[in-house]
């Protein structure tokens, strides 16, 4: 009796095909906080907080916005169960 061959994981295969140029935008929230000239000062102050502290919050918002944009631009448009038109119940028949 021969042992069955293991199947290749489909998740790994689909990730390997994801070469969207939108993914390069994910470097923005990584690189921008590493540039010292942006936060190397005490002024201007916002609500009494020095620039460094409110820029940290701005970097979080930048990361969320960039990640959301990349996700929306790279998600699969066809083939998913949510792409079926409303009212087309095919379950179990």
TrEMBL record:
Keyword field: Membrane, Transmembrane, Transmembrane helix
Membrane-traversing stretches: 22-41, 53-71
A Pfam family this chain is assigned to: DUF3311
Keyword Membrane: yes
InterPro entries, A to Z: DUF3311 (IPR021741)
Name of this chain's protein: Uncharacterized protein
């Amino acid at each position: 009796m021969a042992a069955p061959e293991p199947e290749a994981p489909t998740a790994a295969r689909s990730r390997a095909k994801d070469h969207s140029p939108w993914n390069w935008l994910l470097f923005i929230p990584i690189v921008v906080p590493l540039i010292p000239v942006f936060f190397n000062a005490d002024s201007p102050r916002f609500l009494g907080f020095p620039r460094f502290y409110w820029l940290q919050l701005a970097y979080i918002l930048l990361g969320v916005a960039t990640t959301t944009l990349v996700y929306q631009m790279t998600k699969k448009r066809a083939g998913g169960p949510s792409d079926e038109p409303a009212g087309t119940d095919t379950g179990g028949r």
